[in-house]
Design brief:
binds zinc ion, Jelly Rolls, about 0% helix, 4 domains, 7-stranded antiparallel sheet, mainly beta, rod-shaped, single chain
């Protein structure tokens, strides 16, 4: 809005009068203001309040031939020829004085209505001025139009422009800067980016594992891909049967290694009786140690002098027991095969003598 110029005629600004949307109210009945003088209470002190109905007043300048007042209210200042006020825009501004000195020959009062204009200064991190925006209207959003600020690298870091600070608050590149309410200086802010490849932590691949002979403990040695630094950690070892698992956590990631301690499959099948009378049965127990469970058994027989094996049907559902009755007095070979879950098969052959008389 344009400034309002009030050129006073005699008597025009008596208390209560309104000109150009500005109402002047004197604190005392004797207060008055005209083209000749302003009387702030005829020596006793007094006040004028300027109230605008056309927008907030942001400045007032009262020009006069001479000015002599004391104890001016906040925001007002005086030279020998002008009284002026400039502050936070307000609908109502009061001029008061303690001694009520007289101003002679007021030539003009200028009210500035509306927003103030401010200066926004943009500095680099070291204080170098990058841009200065003057006459930025109050309420406008500050905008930097210059080249992206830079900061030279040093021994440890490179620097990436990351926003602005007003000295109190730091704003990121995606943050909105607050609207202008006064002169403000923004200083560029930089994020330091370490030249150390491991500044944000080491980077590890699979470790080398070292197991105790009895698999009760294990260690894992990691070598950083970035700095080659080596780190050895004790693993947490658990086992499920013969399978041992070692676990370590580094950099938030878990690494595991397993060892299979399963003993080799040993066929321990046996015949309950090593010699029998003809017609008596031979009882055969299928058994094994080690190997991957479960172990299954098959049973065979043949006369020792022959080469062809004959199958004996297991006597139990579990297949761990079989029985065979020789029909002749002869030497019989019994074969038991034990096969574990991994398909490992171990045979055991033993010879039973079938005789007429024990
Ligand atoms: Zn590293």
């Amino acid at each position: 809005m344009d400034d309002i110029f009030l050129n006073y005629d005699y008597g025009a600004m008596e208390s209560g009068n309104t000109i150009g949307g500005i109402t002047v109210t004197g604190s005392k009945g004797v207060n008055w203001m005209n083209t000749y003088c302003i009387d702030l209470g005829s020596g006793a002190g007094g006040s004028f309040t300027f109230t605008s109905s056309v927008g907030d007043i942001s400045s007032i300048v009262i020009s006069a031939q001479t000015i002599s007042v004391e104890g001016l209210s906040t925001g007002w200042s005086a030279t020998s020829t002008a009284l002026s006020w400039s502050g936070t825009p307000a609908a109502s501004v009061t001029l008061s004085a303690s001694s009520g000195g007289t101003i002679y020959t007021i030539s003009q009062i200028v009210f500035t209505i509306g927003t103030n204009a401010y200066t926004v200064t943009w500095n680099n991190w070291d204080g170098t001025e990058l841009e200065k925006d003057t006459d930025v209207e109050e309420g406008a959003t500050p905008a930097y139009d210059g080249v992206t600020p830079t900061k030279a690298e040093d021994n440890n870091n490179t620097y990436e422009f990351s926003g602005w600070t007003d000295g109190t608050t730091t704003y990121g590149l995606n943050d909105a800067l607050p609207s202008v309410t006064g002169d403000v200086t923004y200083t560029a802010v930089f994020e330091a980016i370490s030249k150390d490849p491991c500044a944000k932590g080491h980077s590890y691949g699979e470790p080398a594992w070292f197991w105790a002979d009895d698999l009760s403990t294990a260690k894992a040695t990691f070598v950083c891909d970035g700095c080659k630094e080596s780190t050895t950690l004790d693993a947490e070892v658990t086992n499920e049967g013969y399978i041992y698992t070692a676990k370590v956590t580094i950099g938030g990631k878990e690494y595991t290694d397993t060892q299979d301690n399963t003993p080799a499959l040993e066929n321990t099948s046996y015949a309950v009786n090593e010699s029998v009378k003809v017609g008596e049965r031979i009882e055969i127990a299928g058994s094994a140690e080690g190997g991957a469970a479960p172990v299954t058994y098959q049973y065979f027989f043949k006369r020792s002098e022959n080469t062809k094996w004959n199958t004996i049907k297991p006597a139990t559902d579990a297949g761990t027991y079989a029985k065979f009755t020789p029909t002749k007095a002869a030497s019989y070979d019994i074969k038991v095969t034990a096969t574990d879950a991994d398909g490992v098969c171990v045979s055991k052959i033993f010879t039973i003598e079938s005789v007429d008389e024990l």
